[in-house]
């Protein structure tokens, strides 16, 4: 799966901001400490998040960043798109004329493309508020593995 640190770190930072900030601006140095992401990397991410309207910057002594909208109105997919992070499961880039193998799609292309679409749809339904409060959903029952809960046998 193609999911780089940029998207993961942006979601982590946005969730931290939602949890800590409220209406107050939060300095990147505080997010950096809590999430163990360098300030320089956060500065790059927050520049992109600000351009997308997902965060607002505040200058001055109590400067930092705050959410641009309520956490319930910001999806994980929006955050990832703001930092130019997509969800791609296939080897090809999905560009016109580009294929997985020399001149043709690989045998499993449609499977991985459909999985990527499902992941993207899921991330589009999950808000930053959901991330902070815990993603709602069914947890595996006692003795059940995550794989068996979706119909796969546990062969370990």
- What strand order characterises the main sheet? 1-2
The structural class is: mainly alpha
CATH homologous superfamily label: Winged helix-like DNA-binding domain superfamily/Winged helix DNA-binding domain
> Which series of helices and strands comes N to C?
HHHEEHHH
Strand residue percentage: 5-15%
- In the CATH scheme, the class would be Mainly Alpha
Low-pLDDT segments: none
Share of helix among residues? 40-55%
The rounded Rg comes to: 19 Å
Tell me the number of helical segments per DSSP (H or I, 4 or more residues long).
6
Number of strands: 2
Looking at the overall shape, the CATH architecture is Orthogonal Bundle
Shape: elongated
- Average pLDDT number: 82
* Gap between N and C termini: 23 Å
Biggest beta-sheet profile: 2 strands, antiparallel
């Amino acid at each position: 799966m193609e999911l780089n640190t940029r998207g993961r770190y942006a979601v982590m930072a946005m969730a931290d901001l939602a949890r800590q900030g409220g209406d107050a601006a939060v300095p990147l140095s505080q997010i950096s400490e809590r999430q163990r992401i360098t300030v320089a990397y956060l500065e790059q991410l927050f520049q992109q998040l600000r351009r997308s309207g997902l965060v607002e910057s505040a200058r001055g002594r109590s400067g930092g960043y705050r959410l641009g909208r309520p956490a319930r109105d910001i999806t994980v997919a929006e955050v990832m798109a703001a930092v130019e992070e997509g969800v791609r499961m296939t080897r090809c880039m999905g560009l016109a004329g580009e294929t997985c193998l020399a001149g043709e799609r690989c045998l499993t292309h449609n499977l991985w493309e459909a999985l990527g679409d499902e992941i993207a749809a899921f991330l589009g339904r999950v808000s930053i508020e959901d991330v902070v409060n815990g993603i709602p959903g069914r947890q595996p029952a006692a003795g059940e593995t995550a794989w068996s809960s979706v119909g796969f046998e546990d062969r370990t």
